[in-house]
Amino acid sequence: MSAKTPLMINLNLPKWKAGSVLEIHTLLTNLCATPCTSQGAETRPASTAKRVQLQFERPFGSSASLSPNTSSHRKQNQSPGQPCWGSRQPAEASGNTQTTSGPSDTPHTPCVQMRDQALRYRSIHTRLMEMVLTLQQTVEDHIVRLTTRPQQRDLALEEQWHGQAIREQEALLGRLLFQIVSFLPAGAPGDQSVQPPCTSTDSRGDVGGGQPVQANRQTGQMFYEESDFENTVISYDLSNRGIDISALYHLSFRDYDTYQGNKYHKDKNTLGYINLGTSENKLCTDLLAERLSQSDMTYVDEDLLQYTDWRGQPFLRKEVARFLTFYCKTPKPLDPENVVILNGCSAVFSALAMVLCDPGEAFLVPTPSYGGFAFSTHLYAKVKLVPVHLESQVTEANGYPFQLTVDKLEHALLRAKIEGKKVRGLVLINPQNPLGDVYSQDSMMEYLEFAKKYNLHVIVDEMYMLSVFDEAITFHSVLSMKSLPDPNKTHVIWGASKDFCISGFRFGALYTHNREVASAMSCFGYLHSISGIAQYKLRQLLQDREWIDNIYLPSYHFRLQEAHRYVTRKLKASKVPFLNRGSGLYVWINLKQYLDPCTFEEELLLHRRFLDHKLILSPGKTFMCKEPGWFRLVFAARPHLLRNAMRRFQQVLVEQAQERTVKQLEDAMKEEVSTSQPEAPASPALRKS
Ligand SMILES: Cc1ncc(COP(=O)(O)O)c(C=O)c1O
Questions:
Q1: What are phi and psi of 233, to 5 degrees?
Q2: Is this prediction's pTM over 0.90?
Q3: Would you list the domain boundaries of the chain?
Q4: Which of 272, 339, 382, 446 could connect to 264 by a Cys-Cys bridge, CB 3.0–4.6 Å?
Q5: Is the CB of 461 under 6 A from ligand 1?
Q6: 310-549 domain in CATH 3.10.20.30?
Q7: How far is the CA of 23 from the centre of ligand 1 (A)?
Q8: Where is this region: Disordered (predicted)?
Q9: What is the predicted pLDDT for the residue at 124?
């Protein structure tokens, strides 16, 4: 840092904000001025960040002493209202000679490749310090903004413009702070540690991205807690809950938003992002577009233009009941009165969390698991997820990688009870996302018996039931069971986003034997129903068994097999281990060999490197996976896209492997130098003794 002349500024600033900003500034200044050299020091910013969070709660102090050079660092010709990214590179400010980091170094924005090379060798601490310095610069700019009143007399317009500029800067500050909190290393000791949240990738949902974070972190817990988001974003306008939601959104959807703004297109944008992170089915969109354009789809009844039954149009509920009766092979026809339709399975899941749990209560969920659940349960219901951690290692207790057993369920339930959590249910995905496992009938029965024994609800998400492409595997719906251990507490979810490639339709259905639950769920149709026109088209689609069985499903399964074969061949060629399961739109791949050391921080860096190559994959942390190094790769894409994606994928692995080798060589050389050096002579004091 350059020399600082303390500068007294008598501020006449609105409300609490200036005080908070100044306090943050002082904190950041102290933080930047403190050298951190040891390993332990790497965790220091974690607690500081927590303190930074707390500063937001402090009331405003009307005058403050502001240390630095604030305005002198400001870029002279910077236009007002803009953060002065270019004015003083953070590294220059700290006297740090390393490559500087600007907005393009933020966790979700790809960096230029050369800078990335340098970045890879930096410690987490260095990177954090860069972020903190960038933040400090922004805070300084913000103080200047707050203390600069409009010069001209005019005026309302000028005032308005000034206010707007301040808001924009504050939004930026909030984002920067949040990025820093997001980036803090996992496992920092003590209560103040903050785990690095996962980047979102499975966009909407698998967005997962939003790797939940836990406030009072226990080993292996990685879920969002409300307190993680409190006060990390500054806002004039949002409530605390609004701030929480906004932070959750940014955490969960940042990669997805980046992707939406710059999508790959084979003619129009060949340099755009290819998204193999979101579990979205692009394999048969052509068939669906064609079918949905046929004349029987275009009918508009006047009734369809009116409000409807909030559980869903009776004609669609009837068709969904028929459809599930047929494809789930139920022993008796399902009852349309037990069907509730909302705009997507995420909405169904979120509504179920609302009606089955009180805030703070929890669901057990075997992990790795679809990351969108954490988002959906937190958003409205403030329901927690308790992970049942599965392991990749095959052992006596673990017959195959990531096997779910009743023992593990019981263990997790017991641990949750000891921690004072009230567990209300168990969430199962079958076929599983991201593993691709299909549960046998016997296993499923064991899980249901377990739930009954402990009086738990079971939500079975059968979202991928028609996406089993290995002919040797048979999927058994829970609805096909002749007798369910606890029918009143067994709830099944299915939607058309995955099996029919129409995630944009936003259609999700619940089937429950429990009328009380169905009735409570109906209320959500008031907020989350689908348009009558879309419901009509969905009915037409689901009732066309001839097309589904003879045209759609054979083509869909063939394309799934082809895409899976192509991707797994490439993985084998690159010697990347993966789970070879025959269902779902994705493969669960093991990139541990590319992480050195094998940590979640390195996983995040590798994820960023994929982003730098405009490729989105979902890192394992997004799925609450306990072991770093796993990624989910979605292969349900058309051949040209997949070919391009796999080219980018392989390029990243080659670079990553090269860097690893260089790093290992450097480490070996360093060790050699340190062991070959003669021991330093003992100090006189030591010699004497
Ligand atoms: C297991 C699972 N359930 C639910 C969803 C969300 O589905 P929808 O598009 O219907 O909200 C997803 C999306 O990835 C999923 O993988």
A1: -125, 135
A2: no
A3: 7-194, 310-549
A4: 272
A5: yes
A6: no
A7: 43
A8: 61-111, 190-212, 665-689
A9: 59
